[in-house]
From TrEMBL:
Residues 56-252 form the Fumarylacetoacetase-like C-terminal domain. It holds the Pfam family FAA_hydrolase. GO terms for molecular function: acetylpyruvate hydrolase activity; isomerase activity; metal ion binding. Keywords: Hydrolase, Metal-binding. This is Fumarylacetoacetate hydrolase family protein. SUPFAM superfamilies: FAH. One of its GO terms (biological process) is carboxylic acid metabolic process.
Length: 254
């Protein structure tokens, strides 16, 4: 199942399932419209929204050895964590308006883990029980300021710097070696897979919840493979995760 959150033609926020033929079957219970009739929508008739409403995105740095190498960094001995705040979230299909006057704004294709319930102190063995599913994330990075600061607020948490979506895929739909790719204007820039992680999803959940409470709808962005590169005004960026689908955005840099 691939769960989608959307605004219908009447302007109401709805939930549903994205079917293989590209149509959406609305969920009558979550939208409060319990009816015997099955409502379906064409993608062209709706506005895709972020698939969840996170209170925070917990991001993982250097979780691929090849990416650490390309950035000239050592492989960490524990997960390197930083946060993106809700203002960073952008939806599939939207135009992301990025910072002006910045020399390097990079794309980073990542697998996102969506949390199902409020949780703290979750062991790696129990981690599967708090996962709602997986999504695509583009951890857009402002390298100019990231290099100058240690907390990465300017470098990572600016507006529209975390497109997510288009759906939340059930865990069983996303293989252990799921591919994680980025294309810019149709050119393949990144091509990695989940089985290249230094720290697995259960290990990340155990580490993060040892320090902070995760809320339902929070997202863990699990790190990016090698091949990160700059974005320019007018670019079309596609983040593809096997089993989830493709997150697509247009870039605007004023």
């Amino acid at each position: 199942m691939r769960q989608i959150r959307f605004r219908d033609p009447d302007g109401d926020v709805r939930y549903g399932e994205l079917i293989d033929d590209g149509t959406i079957r609305a969920d009558p219970i979550r939208t409060g419209r319990v009816t015997d009739a099955v409502e379906t929508f064409e993608m062209e008739s709706i506005e895709v929204l972020p698939p969840c409403d996170p209170s925070k995105i917990v991001c993982v740095g250097r979780n691929y050895a090849d990416h650490a190498e390309e950035m000239g960094n050592e492989i960490p001995d524990r997960p390197l964590l930083f946060l993106k705040s809700p203002n960073a979230v952008a939806s599939h299909g939207s135009t992301v308006e990025l910072l002006t006057g910045i020399e390097t704004l990079d794309h980073e294709a990542e697998l996102g883990v969506v949390i199902a319930e409020r949780c703290r102190h979750v062991s790696a063995d129990d981690a599967d029980g708090v996962i709602a599913g997986y999504t695509c994330v583009n951890d857009i990075s402002n390298r100019d300021d990231q290099r100058r600061e240690t907390n990465w607020v300017r470098g990572k948490s600016f507006d529209d710097s975390a497109p997510i979506g288009p759906v939340i895929a059930a865990p069983e739909n996303v293989p252990d070696d799921a591919s994680v790719r980025c294309r810019v204007n149709g050119e393949l820039r990144q091509d990695g897979s989940r089985d290249q992680f230094i720290f697995s999803v259960p290990e990340l959940i155990e580490e993060i919840t040892a320090y902070m409470t995760l809320e339902a709808g929070d997202v863990i962005s699990t790190g990016t493979p090698e091949g990160v590169g700059p974005l320019a005004d007018g670019d079309t960026v596609e983040i593809e995760v096997e089993g989830v689908g493709t997150l697509e955005n247009q870039v605007r840099i004023p």
